[in-house]
From TrEMBL, chain A:
GO terms for molecular function: flavin adenine dinucleotide binding; glutathione-disulfide reductase (NADPH) activity; thioredoxin-disulfide reductase (NADPH) activity. Its cofactor is FAD. The lineage of its organism: Eukaryota, Metazoa, Chordata, Craniata, Vertebrata. This is thioredoxin-disulfide reductase (NADPH). Transmembrane segments: none annotated. Binds 1 FAD per subunit. It comes from Nipponia nippon. Residues 360-471 form the Pyridine nucleotide-disulphide oxidoreductase dimerisation domain.
Automatic annotation (TrEMBL), chain B:
Disulfide bonds join 48-53. FAD binds at residues 57, 121, 318. The lineage of its organism: Eukaryota, Metazoa, Chordata, Craniata, Vertebrata. One of its GO terms (cellular component) is mitochondrion. InterPro entries: FAD/NAD-bd_sf, FAD/NAD-binding_dom, FAD/NAD-linked_Rdtase_dimer_sf, GSHR/TRXR-like, Pyr_nuc-diS_OxRdtase, Pyr_nucl-diS_OxRdtase_dimer, Pyr_OxRdtase_I_AS, Thioredoxin/glutathione_Rdtase. It comes from Nipponia nippon (Crested ibis). The active site is at residue 456. NCBIfam families: TGR (TIGR01438). Binds 1 FAD per subunit. Belongs to the class-I pyridine nucleotide-disulfide oxidoreductase family. This is thioredoxin-disulfide reductase (NADPH). GO terms for biological process: cell redox homeostasis; cellular response to oxidative stress; glutathione metabolic process. NAD(+) binds at residues 186-193, 276.
């Protein structure tokens, strides 16, 4: 018979909602299913997906709380008289952040209503390629049929498989942002952006925080920049246990956690107690309960992510996927949103525009932020050979750090260019305050095919940190001191 | 005696002289600060370092930190309720930093073997100047080429009491006592930036404006800048001009309306005059060697290679007629000039699409044309203006200023929707605008903006998702993610 909806989106996160709302603009009958399986610790949340509830938004707000802690210290140098002691109360911050997130959940529901998109708070799975079976928490069933289906169920944090007690006693980022009480002395094992960002703001609000890493930090990112980031965090007060991995987590009588780990450098076993252990092992795509095998949607055997082509189509006609769930795509909110919108425009708006995943800028919101766009230095070397690239770099000091007497040792930027005539820019990397704001415009420049000479022709805005990018002239090759001196 | 003598040791002058020295030339720099009526003076480095960009941004930062203190409580930080600001602590810290910069410049000149004279330079005959130091000692020097980089100084009002009782930005940044209740006269970016940070430090501030705010800037943006300052406690008295300043217990200012007979009188601790700056070209002997200046504003007209009407005399920086008064422009012009003179280069300074930022409490960054200029040049029907309000994520928790930050781009329809004007009102406007200025240099279009992925969550990303045009008349009020 006829399908109830033109489009059914499974997953009400960044990608899903963007796709659904765009499709509705074309006058289509659209429905969204969103359901949050509680975390092992029992945490759950409302409509909006990872970004809004347990990702970008609460993360950046807590990062801001930490930055404000630094601002309080700076302020005294600038003449503000603040009586000691200054301390931070987790519950005030958490309540404020959680309230804001809830207002966003509400906002999303209102938006869907305004755009006449039907919203189901149901857990969906495939019955056939046009039919979804939705279940409530209590197990009540609703059947929904649609001409086109978009899978946008995102991912959830993984737990380590070989660590006893990991699941029972540890939490993940899914839980951290919803804690009502302070996490206290925290250990974050393994290292992806999430754990560094979280460890960073936990340190910033005054908590005893340790990061444990088995090998390299920020895998996939430029490694020189990654080490500057962790170097800064170390001087900022975050403890690092390098080349270590946890073996067991036990609960103690006073409700604290005893963690044992192997130090691969020394070949020893070590142990310490913490209030909280937050795993940041990576994220796994949320596909298990979708019943993809029934309809034949192919996934990558290693990652479990859904395989899609350049038009976001899966192996099954009329079934598409966008966002973190898709194989080979960056796990970022703005790419999911753009992909979702373009997909809707292609399905219903007579557009043929495909998503461009090249040169997507990103920022890691560690205490000293790291923004980048394009290739890392090692990727550029691999791609073109070190003889064919030129790396311009500089250590600089933000003006605001001077009076505040803050250490700027890790404030650094580098531009990787092709060496031949035009000197096209392959990658730009910046560590410093407001890295996201700095990089955004340059990402556009790179989209316009910016070359090194063009950047040098651009006049700087004074005084800013970003202007130093337009003044980069010392190459790594020259071996000269790359510290920016004076005005 | 010299290949090059540069008169003026500011942003432009120092950049030019150092570059020329690097290229192997014998260079001299003269720098001399005529004390203000109040007696304020400063060291090597020019306006930017001593009484401009640097202290301005640091005081702006002090004010922003005051706001951060308020926000921090909403983010869970707790400390004693009463927080006051100590002006003297701030000025001392800033002056110490400036002192280190003055020192750094002297070292840098020495390292590059540039001769530095702390003397007032004047032309007495072709290729020859007379240099007078503070003690009145005179020396004479000749050079093949001269560069004028004497910059500007604040203009006074020409009313009774202005020089005796009022101060300017030349005095403000090293003022040894807190200015207290302040009247700022003027609506230049200097006036608004100073009024802004003074208010942010907790002072009672009033701005007296003769007509419009930020003349020369996009007026829609200028009004938004002013409106934000007003909602945050800065008082504005519009369409009045002071006619007299006299001393009683405090400073009494008498002002007249520009539209009628109305008189305004009020007392202040400090009156800061910020009505514009005049070029320092009138008493350096330019007439003696025939260098023409624009009689109206005192500025020096030059060709596109910064050359005056006298072939061996060049000019750079704020004294140029018709060019932007910005440090980075002066530096770039100075460097390129030296390279053209001595390095065999032919690259000229590119004055097109120079980005700027006004560091008012709500910062305003821009690159390209103001909307009214664009309409004048292209015609309204040939433009598409996209705009959006936005709420920085960091302001949500403290619940401040929703639907206040604003982003606007002006596109030329007949040129592929090329971005010819970029305007942003919000925190870190300078950091945001810089990259976009580079993109505009590379021919940024609306399509490229739409194709670029935003960084989330930032303010800058708003430019990658702008859908609403002014012509559509649609509401841009923000309601959520």
């Amino acid at each position: 018979g006829k399908n109830e909806y033109d489009l059914l989106v499974i997953g009400g996160g960044s990608g899903g909602l963007a796709c659904a709302k765009e499709a509705a603009q074309f006058g289509r009958k659209v429905a969204v299913l969103d359901y949050v399986e509680p975390s092992p610790q029992g945490t759950k949340w409302g409509l909006g997906g990872t970004c809004v509830n347990v990702g970008c938004i609460p993360k950046k707000l807590m990062h801001q709380a930490a930055l404000l802690g630094s601002a309080l210290k700076d302020a005294q140098h600038y003449g503000w008289n603040i009586a000691q002691p200054v301390h931070h109360t987790w519950s005030v911050m958490a309540q404020a952040v959680q309230n804001y997130v809830k207002s966003l959940n509400w906002g999303h529901r209102v938006q869907l209503q305004d755009k006449k998109v039907k919203y189901f708070n149901l857990k969906g799975s495939f019955s056939d390629s046009h039919t979804i079976r939705g279940l409530t928490k209590a197990g009540k069933e609703t059947i929904v049929t649609a001409e086109n289906i978009v899978i946008a169920t995102g991912g959830r944090p993984k737990y380590p498989t070989h660590v006893a007690g990991a699941l029972e006693y540890g939490i993940t980022s899914d839980d951290l942002f919803w804690l009502k009480e302070s996490p206290g002395k925290t250990l974050t094992p393994f290292v992806f952006n999430v754990s560094l960002e979280c460890a960073g703001f936990l340190t910033g609000i005054g908590l005893d925080t340790t990061v444990m890493m088995r090998s390299i930090p920020l895998r996939g990112f430029d490694q020189q920049m990654a080490s500057l980031v962790t170097e800064h965090m170390e001087s900022y007060g975050t403890k690092f246990l390098k080349r270590c991995f946890p073996t067991t987590v036990e609960k103690l009588e006073n409700n604290r956690l005893q963690v044992t780990w192997k130090n691969t450098d020394l070949g020893t076993e070590e142990t310490d107690s913490f209030d909280t252990v937050m795993w940041a092992v990576g994220r796994a795509p949320d596909t298990e309960t979708l019943n993809l095998e029934t309809v034949g949607v192919k996934t990558n055997s290693e990652t479990g992510k859904i395989i899609v082509d350049a038009s976001e189509a899966t192996s099954v006609p009329h079934i598409y996927a966008v966002g973190d769930i898709t194989e080979g795509r960056p796990e970022l909110t703005p790419t999911a949103i753009a992909a979702g919108k373009l997909l809707a425009q292609r399905l219903f708006g007579q557009s043929s525009e495909l998503m461009d995943y090249d040169n997507v800028p990103t920022t890691v919101f560690t205490p000293l932020e790291y923004g980048c766009v394009g290739l890392s230095e090692e990727a550029a070397v691999q791609c073109y050979g070190s003889d064919n690239i030129e790396v311009y770099h500089a250590y600089y000091k933000p003006l605001e750090f001077t009076v505040a007497e803050r250490d700027a040792s890790q404030c650094y930027m580098k531009m990787v260019c092709l060496r031949e005539r035009e000197q096209r820019i392959l990658g730009l990397h910046f560590i410093g305050p407001n890295a996201g704001e700095v990089i955004q415009g340059f990402a556009l420049g790179i989209k316009c095919g910016a070359t090194y000479p063009q950047l040098m022709k651009t006049i700087g805005i004074h005084p800013t940190c970003a202007e130093e990018i337009t003044k980069l002239h010392i190459t790594k090759r020259s071996g000269l001191d790359a510290t920016v001196t004076g005005c | 005696d010299y290949d090059l003598i540069v008169i003026g040791g500011g942003s432009g002058g120092l950049a030019c002289s150092k570059e020329a020295a690097t290229l192997g030339k014998k260079v001299m720099v003269l720098d001399y600060v005529v004390p203000t009526p109040l007696g304020t003076s400063w060291g090597l480095g020019g306006t930017c370092v001593n009484v401009g960009c640097i202290p301005k941004k640091l005081m702006h930062q002090a004010a922003l930190l005051g706001q951060a203190l308020q926000d921090s409580r909403k983010y869970g930080w707790q400390y004693e309720e009463q927080v006051k600001h100590n002006w003297e602590v701030m000025v001392e810290a800033i002056q110490n930093y400036i002192g280190s910069l003055n020192w750094g410049y002297r070292v840098s000149l020495r390292e590059k073997s540039v001769t530095y004279l702390n003397s007032y330079g004047e032309f007495i005959e072709p290729h020859k100047i007379k240099a007078t130091n503070r003690k009145g000692q005179v020396t004479y020097h000749t050079a093949e080429t001269f560069v004028l980089a004497t910059g500007e100084r604040p203009r006074y009002l020409g009313i009774p009491g202005d020089k005796e009782y009022c101060i300017t930005s030349d005095d403000l940044f090293s003022l040894p006592y807190c200015p207290g209740k302040t009247l700022v006269v003027g609506a230049s970016y200097v006036a608004l930036e100073c009024a802004g940070f003074l208010a942010g430090l907790g002072l009672d501030v009033t701005v007296m404006v003769r007509s419009i705010l930020l003349r020369g800037f996009d007026q829609e943006m200028a009004e938004k800048v002013g409106a934000h300052m007003e909602t945050h406690g800065v008082k504005f008295i519009r369409k009045f001009v002071p006619v007299q300043a006299s001393a009683s217990f405090r400073l009494k200012v008498t002002a007249k309306s520009t539209e009628g007979p109305e008189i305004f009188e009020e007392e202040y601790n400090t009156v800061l005059i910020a009505v514009g700056r005049d070029a320092c070209t009138r008493s350096i002997g330019l007439e003696t060697i025939g260098v023409k200046i624009n009689e109206k504003n005192g500025k020096v007209p030059v060709n596109d290679e910064e050359q005056t009407n006298v072939p061996y005399v060049y000019a750079i920086g704020d004294i140029l007629d018709g060019k932007l008064e910005l440090t980075p422009v002066a530096i770039q012009a100075g460097k390129l000039l030296a390279r053209r003179l001595y390095g065999g280069s032919s690259t000229k300074c590119d004055y097109i699409n120079v980005p700027t930022t006004v560091f008012t409490p709500l910062e305003y960054g821009s690159c390209g044309l103001a909307e009214e200029r664009a309409i004048e040049e292209y015609g309204k029907q040939n433009l598409e203006v996209y705009h959006s309000l936005f709420w920085p994520l960091e302001w949500t928790v403290p619940g401040r200023d929703n639907n206040t930050c604003y982003a606007k781009i002006i596109c030329s329809k007949h040129d592929n929707n090329r971005v010819i004007g970029f305007h942003v009102l919000g925190p870190n406007a300078g950091e945001i605008t810089q990259g976009f200025a580079a993109a505009i240099k590379c021919g940024l279009t609306k399509e490229l903006l739409d194709e670029t992925i935003g960084i989330h969550p930032t303010c800058g990303e708003v430019f990658t998702t702008m859908d609403i045009t002014k012509s559509s008349g649609q509401d841009i009020t923000q309601r959520g993610c």
